[in-house]
Amino acid sequence: MNSINCCVIKIGSNVLTTKEGKPDLERMNHLVSEISNFHKKGIKVILVSSGAVAFGRKEISLPEKLNPVLKKQIWASTGQIELINKYKSLFEERKLQVAQILVTKEDFRDRKHFLNMKNCVLGLLSQGIIPVINENDTVAITELMFTDNDELASLSAAMVDADTLVLLTNVNGIYTGSPDHPDSELIRVVAQDSEELASYISATKSSFGRGGMLTKLNMSKKSADLGIQVFIANGKQDNILTNILAKDTDFTYFEPKKAKQSTKKWLAHGDQYFKGEVIINQGAKSALFDQKISSLLPIGVITIEGEFKKGDILRISDEQGNRIGLGRAEYPSKTALEKIGQKNQKPIIHYDYLYLFHHE
């Protein structure tokens, strides 16, 4: 396990709520105390916190028949005020300041937005301010929603080049079966070459959040692939962050691969943001996966689908329809279509802006 210098800590809904669905203020206070101790040790912390809907539900009761999306928007928008105010007062008691950043998937899709957001977060950290990032639920529509805050936390860790991602939930980590089953064992380490673990995990979602353990697994593996070490641990447990730092508690640890460039970290999460698709031939596919560094040239392109402009994210697939990777378009779709199959052309995707799936 590597040392922790900059980490994203995600606190799940079930950590911040009681069994009755009310905000667990005692737990919140304890975790703020632990994060403050991280700060004192010189560790930069970005906080991704669930709980806004639970806070809103406590404040406002809504008719059963009301549209579920509207209900969530109302609870999230009112609860967000309660949540951030509580964090503000708890951190102020420890002489620390917080800043709120509300985002949608659109902010991660556009490279300019992404870099502006990154600069803002890094600026806050440089001034000793703790950024609290959350989804802007009030404007996010279904197709632009994050799967849950695990995805947002994973994206945030990639964005700021964090070395560590901590996902706090209400169990000790990933088990070989249901955590409640007596025969289930905690998976303590997920090595870089670990076999598929999804079969162990039930699709059950938490009572207050959108996602479940499967999302945590997928986001953890993606983060580890980008060079970020990941801990899934029990946020209901006292001193959990201190014990993670001391490696003296139960958790599931994902071994990180070699760190990727920041541009490739941005692209790695772009599978839902791509604007067009490039289908390439076998020769181009072999060249991309060769040990020699290669960009994607028009001569290897069979077809192009969708309309895109320079700078948009493109998905790369082979002739059999297998997804190969993602890249940033070096020119718009109209120009790209004109260059298909031609020799001696500039790359449609430069290697510096190319991310290949399951490949170093």
Automatic annotation (TrEMBL):
SMART domains: PUA
GO molecular function, one term: glutamate 5-kinase activity
Stored Gene3D superfamilies: Acetylglutamate kinase-like, PUA domain
Binding locations of substrate: 50, 137, 149
Signal peptide location: none
Subcellular location: Cytoplasm
Pathway: Amino-acid biosynthesis; L-proline biosynthesis; L-glutamate 5-semialdehyde from L-glutamate: step 1/2
CDD domains (alphabetical): AAK_G5K_ProB, PUA_G5K
Domain PUA positions: 276-349
UniProtKB keywords: Amino-acid biosynthesis, ATP-binding, Cytoplasm, Kinase, Nucleotide-binding, Proline biosynthesis, Transferase
Catalyzed reactions per annotation: L-glutamate + ATP = L-glutamyl 5-phosphate + ADP
Binding site for ATP: 10
Listed EC numbers: 2.7.2.11
Pfam families assigned: AA_kinase (PF00696), PUA (PF01472)
HAMAP family: ProB
NCBIfam families for the chain: proB
Assigned protein family: Belongs to the glutamate 5-kinase family.
Function, in words: Catalyzes the transfer of a phosphate group to glutamate to form L-glutamate 5-phosphate.
UniProt name for this protein: Glutamate 5-kinase
